[in-house]
UniProtKB/TrEMBL annotation:
Source organism per UniProt: Achromobacter seleniivolatilans
Domain Sigma-54 factor interaction: 23-251
Protein name (Swiss-Prot/TrEMBL): Sigma-54 dependent transcriptional regulator
Keyword Transcription: yes
PROSITE patterns reported for this sequence: SIGMA54_INTERACT_1 (PS00675), SIGMA54_INTERACT_2 (PS00676), SIGMA54_INTERACT_3 (PS00688), SIGMA54_INTERACT_4 (PS50045)
Keyword Ribonucleoprotein: no
SMART domains listed in its UniProt record: AAA
CDD domains on file: AAA (cd00009)
Gene3D superfamilies named in the record: 1.10.8.60, Homeodomain-like, P-loop containing nucleotide triphosphate hydrolases
Length: 333
């Protein structure tokens, strides 16, 4: 649920935030985002990042942290949709020994782990409304108490949050408290999907490859076939999908990276939604079909994971586990 380290996760698979957000050669929309990022980093104001899944919201958050005065302090990422309802207070604020069944020792919470640094709230629109109230009080008062404790602790953190939902629509839907949104939405940033900046795909792919070559002491290159395929792909999984495709090709290739399986070109065989039904081509592998079905259901419900899980007849935790697998492994073929 939380990454409590100060270094980016899966470092062997991705370039640093600074490298990926270097606007040199990128589309005008990304050059604008890079400028906004630098302005945001110069302040301590809350930032609200909006963008599709896989577009690079956490990369943007880490880049803001790395460019800020808090760069030497922790960057703690919290998946708000995966916070346990019964233990939410203890996870956020920590707890004292004996404060509840199973509390065998004092434990710090996310605020304490991130002290002096940045607390990144991913999927903040999935945070339970009652938890938003307590969170808002901490942000306004600047202090909090561990569960079962009496000492006031200072909340010295910079808040950056992200969502794949429209913040205003989330307020209308009752997912997000308006006063909570006002506290978070000081600096709004939008990360455009890769399909809106298709020319960036080849530049980013090369940066991923450069990073992998540097890490492994290799000099691998892309084949013309792979470059052509990357240029044609519609990238429904955005930058995350691109990274996974390049990493997989890097691992499976000798000197020249090539692929005819990991990338789905626009003309490729894939499941299609027609008249509310999902049509699968004959011969599609079972794992791929399951992935298509899950993601199509999630898209049908506009990214509402709870509703998608109910529709699929699985628990929210099971759905998150499947999405985590797709994030780490890329798109099965």
């Amino acid at each position: 649920m939380a990454n409590r380290t100060n270094s980016p996760g899966r470092a062997d698979a991705q370039a640093s935030p600074a490298t990926l957000l270097d606007a040199t050669g990128l589309s005008p929309v990304m050059q604008k985002l890079a400028t906004q990022l630098q302005l945001a980093a110069a302040t301590d104001a809350s930032v609200f990042i909006v963008g599709e899944s896989g577009a690079g919201k956490e990369i943007v958050a880490r880049a803001i942290h790395d460019a800020s005065d808090r760069s030497g302090q922790p960057f703690v990422a919290v998946n708000c949709g995966a916070i346990s309802g019964t233990l939410a207070h203890a996870e956020l604020f920590g707890h004292e020994k004996g404060s509840f069944t199973g509390a065998v020792a004092q434990n710090a919470g996310y605020f304490e782990y991130a002290s002096g640094g940045t607390l990144f709230l991913d999927e903040v629109t999935e945070m339970p409304p009652d938890m938003q109230v307590h969170f808002l009080r901490v942000l306004e008062a600047g202090t909090y108490q561990r569960v079962g404790g009496s000492d006031l602790l200072r909340a010295n953190v910079r808040i950056i949050c992200a969502s794949n939902r429209d913040p205003a629509a989330s307020v209308t839907d009752g997912r997000l408290r308006q006063d909570f949104l006002h506290r978070l939405l000081v600096i709004p940033l939008r990360v455009p999907p890769l399909r809106e900046r298709a020319d960036d795909a080849l530049i980013l792919a090369q940066r991923f490859l450069d990073t992998m070559n540097a890490q492994h002491g290799t000099q691998k290159v892309f084949s013309k076939h792979m470059l052509d395929t990357l240029a044609l792909h519609d990238w429904p999984g955005n930058v995350r999908e691109l990274r996974n495709v390049v990493q997989r090709a890097f691992i499976l290739s000798d000197q020249q990276l090539d692929t005819c399986l990991q990338v789905r070109a626009r003309s490729g065989r894939r499941a299609e939604v027609q008249d509310g039904a999902l049509n699968f081509p004959v011969g599609m592998p079972l794992g791929r079909a399951q992935r298509e079905f899950i993601l199509a259901t999630l898209a049908h419900h506009d990214g509402d994971k709870r509703l998608a899980a109910d529709t699929l007849g699985v628990s929210l935790k099971t759905l998150y586990n499947r999405l985590d697998v797709y994030e780490k492994d890329g798109m099965p073929e």
